[in-house]
Amino acid sequence: MGSEKKGKYWVGFDLGGTKMMAIIMNEDFKILSRIRKKTKGYEGVKLGLDRMMETIKEALVEAKVIIKEIRGVGVGCPGPLDLDKGILIETPNLKWKNVELKSILKKEFDSDVAILNDADAGVYGEYRFGAGKNQRCVIGAFCGTGIGGGCVYEGKIIRGKNSSCMEIGHLPVVPMGPLCGCGKKGCVEAIASRLSIAAAASKAAFRGEAPKLLELAGTDIERIKSTTLYEAIRGGDKAVEKIVKDAAYQTGIALAGAVNLLAPDVIVLGGGLVEAMPDIFVENVKAAINYQAMSSLAANVKVTSAKLGDDAVAMGAAAWIEQL
Amino acid sequence: MGSEKKGKYWVGFDLGGTKMMAIIMNEDFKILSRIRKKTKGYEGVKLGLDRMMETIKEALVEAKVIIKEIRGVGVGCPGPLDLDKGILIETPNLKWKNVELKSILKKEFDSDVAILNDADAGVYGEYRFGAGKNQRCVIGAFCGTGIGGGCVYEGKIIRGKNSSCMEIGHLPVVPMGPLCGCGKKGCVEAIASRLSIAAAASKAAFRGEAPKLLELAGTDIERIKSTTLYEAIRGGDKAVEKIVKDAAYQTGIALAGAVNLLAPDVIVLGGGLVEAMPDIFVENVKAAINYQAMSSLAANVKVTSAKLGDDAVAMGAAAWIEQL
Question: Which of B170, B189, B250 to mutate to test the interface with A (most CBs of A within 10 A)?
Answer without folding.
Answer: B170
